[in-house]
Structures are given as structure tokens and as C-alpha cells.
Amino acid sequence: MDLRIQRSVVSNLRNRPKALEIGPFVAGLDPDTDSPFINYASPIPGAPITAADVDALVDAFIGAGRKPRLEYVTSCVPELEDLLLAAGFTIEARHQYLICTPQTVAAQPVPEGLILVEPTTDPDRAALTAAANEAFGEAPEASEADIARVRRNQERGGVVLAAFTPTGECAGAGQAMPPSDRLSEVGGIGVRPPFRRRGLAAAITAGVTQGIFDLGVEFAWLEASGDDSWRVYERVGYVPAGHRLYISKG
């Protein structure tokens, strides 16, 4: 499973609008934002990696005006961490990822007064993005580039869901990436503060996960950011499976 997850991450990076192949790495760089959570690289499984390759990766990021950063499944390239640390990288986090299958996913009720829908217009995509940004502690606004990213995910076969009130207020949202090797990453599950503690995160996670399974995906995977989200995902049917490393320089 680790290898399939890592391959799917690389595949998704290759489909970015500005993807770079830098030796044994694939970098997904976005010209519209310098966010390190969007601009990052990941190693190609099975490709040998040297210190010179790491230096070339750093140079490419700096040349693009971006912070050198990687996300990857640790078991697929166990030698890489030492090379990165020797090059001055700092570990941001180690996360355990969880997986779910069509057999284990459990539907969750949508809180009363809310509906889950897939946005089909740019105003709805903007409301979704603004709500997600607020949920993650950022400014509740959406740029044209943000809207384009959501639209592009949908056009490539990803699943996007948002929770709306009857008056059109967006309460929260989540997405699944376009399938690769019959896998899909679920992420961006966010609920605005006024709508929390009502089961909405679980409902969004279950809805997005089932939506991607309806497209023929065998496994969905995600990462939990804390104990609360871990409990939510376990309730939906996700179980621990492997480990990923987040590491950056500068």
C-alpha cells in the first residue's frame, strides 16, 4: 500500500499546471501562490537519489521563488531523510495516513439544516474555498486561482462537496483528488467554527469518500491532523496504514 500511495502522490504532482521533473523528484509548483502546502516535491519510487540530486531540487525551488519542501511515504525511500537533513532540511511533521475501502466506509448523517452538494458554479466554488480557508485559520476569501484549482480538480475527475445552509451560507467542505492507480487522496476537510461539534466533518468525509468510490476507486486515503479528526475519520471507516514525512528548508 505504501508504494501505491507514493506513486499516486507523484502522479498527482505530474498533473499540476507547472510540474517539474528534477532528477528523481517531481515538483508541483503553482505560479499563483507561494504556499508551501501547495508547492512541494515528492520522490519517484525506485529512483536512486544522491546528495547532488537534493542540491538540484533546492536550486529549482529557490529559482522558482518557492520554499524547498517535500512530502512522501517514508518506507518507499528510507535513505532520503538523512540526505535531506544533511542538506539543511528540517522535519515539519510525521503523520500516519489512514485508508478506507468501499467495504468499510460508513455513511454519516448530515446535520439538520444543511445540505451537501457538489459546486457547479464559480460563486459556489468561491464560497467553498473561503469557508475552507476560514476553517483552517486563514482569511475567509477566495482568489481566482483558488477557484480555478477547485474547478480543475473536478474537471480531472476529483470529487468536491460543500455544505450549505438554506440561505446559501457555506459551512464547510472537502475534496478527493482525481483517481490514480484506483486510489484517491481525500483532503481539505474543513468546517467553519459556528458549525462545528455537529457531525458535519464526518458527513463531509463520508460523502466525499463514497463519491470517489462510486467512480471505481479501491482505496481512499487521508491524514489526520489531531485526535479530534482522527476520531472523525475512524468513525467513517478509515484505519491506520502507513507513515508520511513533511520536511522543508528555510
TrEMBL record:
InterPro entries: Acyl_CoA_acyltransferase (IPR016181), GNAT_dom (IPR000182)
MF term (GO), any: acyltransferase activity
Gene3D superfamilies: 3.40.630.30
EC number: 2.3.1.-
Top enzyme class: transferase
Superkingdom of the source species: Bacteria
Entry keyword GTP-binding: no
This protein's name: GNAT family N-acetyltransferase
Organism: Actinoplanes sandaracinus
